[in-house]
Amino acid sequence: MGFLASNVSQPNLAINDPEDMPMVLDDISAEWIGRAIGIKVDSIKVDLVLPGTATKVLISIDYGSRRPKDAPQTVCLKGGFSHDLRDLALGLAYRREAEFLAHVATSPKLQMRLPRVWYAATNVRQNQGLVVLENLTATGCTFGECTIPLSVQHVGSGLQQLASLHGLTWGCPVGKYPWMTSANPIQEVAGAMFSKQYWEQHFSEEAVRSQVPADMLDRTRMFAAFRQMWSTADPKLRCIVHGDPHPGNLFFAPGGELGFLDFQAVFSGSSMHDVAYFVAGSLTVEDRRSSERHLLEKYYLPSLHKAGGPQLSIDQIWDDYRRHQLHGFFWAMTGTLMQTKERAAAMAARHIAAIQDHNTLKLLER
């Protein structure tokens, strides 16, 4: 099961399950939780509900007079419990995460630190995907925060883990991963975020506009640059990517080891999408400038080859790395419905500096 936060047996899997799944919080019962984790449950208690793109429900479990060995006392149920969000086509994201945890995270070759997975299921008819994970807080883990950059050592560890995912799935053959989409979730929402109405409303606020260089406030130019990046992505670098590896989607084990969360944005795309986005968004500007080439050469590229990917040199991927810096600009376009102002500002500053340092716009406009 890869390199998990705790030892684990195979999870219960119910991909494309014809049986109805919980769709609202009131549907969650002790009987259903018991079926999900494969252990008879006496009763449950919902301790905390955390709304978001996906709803996270922290649940305490009572097994009566006898708790079986290895049975969890508390779990995190994650999925689509908001009708409004499912109507925004997020059902695909919920199913995507469950499918990733079922089909990729179960590989013994995957060297990624992930939460223990007890259950992963999808129901296409209901447009629902649910996963039952270990409650990381209960095991002493802490979570990353976008306003707090990572150390160079942590980014090196993260690159090794991303390289394991990329190498394991290199080429992303359709026959092996028929469920995987090549649709970049960011690309799917780009039309709305680059609309004249959204752009002008978002950047009408002085505090937001002042963070962005004048040449990046040209909506037509920036949208053209994104389309150029997507259309010229090197197909030889195709693999399954995390899609959104920023500090807020990380956790840290009690010993300080870094792990990854939230695989709702996984898709088949360029490995440099993850690499450029993770490095630029996780390090201080100064640390990135002084260490990014070293990190790619020492941590990412050797780990990629070890995991089954090609043996690439830094020169072979460097221009793709520079082009894919542009993804981070979406943080400058992110409104408060999606992130706090503080997080968006911190991430945008790091990514804009990387776009400038790498002359990304000029490279895409050549």
UniProtKB/TrEMBL annotation:
Pfam families, per the entry: EcKL
InterPro entries listed in its UniProt record: CHK_kinase-like, EcKL, Kinase-like_dom_sf
Gene3D superfamilies, per database record: 3.90.1200.10
Regions annotated as coiled coil: none
SUPFAM superfamilies in the record: Protein kinase-like (PK-like)
Record domain CHK kinase-like: where: 131-303
PANTHER family attached to this UniProt entry: PROTEIN KINASE-LIKE DOMAIN-CONTAINING
Protein name from the UniProt record: CHK kinase-like domain-containing protein
Source organism: Thyridium curvatum
Lineage: Eukaryota, Fungi, Dikarya, Ascomycota, Pezizomycotina
